[in-house]
Specification:
6 strands, Rossmann fold, DNA polymerase, domain 1, globular, single chain, 2 domains, 218 residues, 46% helix, six-stranded parallel beta sheet
Length: 218
């Protein structure tokens, strides 16, 4: 088969930015007097949307206003850290152009809040690159498959004919549950963990694709 749709997570996949999210969460945990977040705790959150993260992060139920305030603070810190370093992950622009020229429909399926998505898509000149940008607002967040299913619907391609690129265990599980061919990107999680979550292929970046994956792409 040859895929007809490609669905990309944004943070940690098309851009290698997860360490900046980690630093922003650590700064917030210090300010709040919480136990400083370690990598294992962070990875349990990675890929989720903020409405699902912050009650677990703080350790209690939160009102929508409290979630919004914490989210705004953390994301502002993240953007201040990452904006000067903004760059596409290796090989991403070339792969997107190749797939576009071959007629593959392109989508983003992201848990990132709107200002974060805008910083990346506008900053890299990708505002018009994708046929659909689907966010988790109003949908169950990853690891539920809804955001990937919505992306496939928006681009008019069956999930079975889509390849999904993801860096987080929660995202891999979501794309796998959606019935897509899943590619794990090892920007911040081990190949073993991504494979165990459901990734059929593992890549470090978009420059060197495994032969089996390359055979599926036009």
């Amino acid at each position: 088969m040859t895929v007809r749709g490609a669905v990309f997570d944004l943070d940690g996949t098309l851009v290698d930015n997860i360490r900046f999210h980690y630093e922003a969460f650590r700064a917030l945990s210090v300010r709040l007097g919480l136990v400083v977040m370690d990598d294992a705790t962070f990875q349990s959150f990675n890929g989720l949307k903020n409405a699902d993260i912050f009650p677990r992060f703080v350790g209690r139920a939160l009102t929508p206003d409290e979630i919004q305030a914490l989210s705004d603070e953390k994301e502002a810190t993240y953007r201040a850290l990452y904006a000067p370093q903004l760059a596409a992950h290796r090989g991403a622009p070339e792969l997107l152009e190749r797939l576009h020229q071959a007629g593959v429909k392109l989508a983003v399926a992201s848990s990132a809040p709107p200002p974060n998505r805008a910083m990346v898509l506008e900053g890299l000149g990708w505002s018009g690159r994708f046929d659909a940008v689907v966010a988790s607002e109003g949908l169950p967040g990853k690891p539920a498959p809804d955001v990937f299913l919505a992306a496939a619907e928006r681009i008019g391609v069956s999930p079975a004919d889509c390849v999904a690129f993801e860096d987080a265990v929660n995202g891999i599980q979501a794309a796998h549950a959606a019935g897509m061919i899943v590619v794990g990107v090892t920007t911040n999680v081990s190949a073993e963990a991504l494979a165990a979550a459901g990734a059929s292929f593992i890549i470090a970046d978009f420059e060197s694709l495994p032969a089996g994956l390359a055979a599926l792409l036009p």
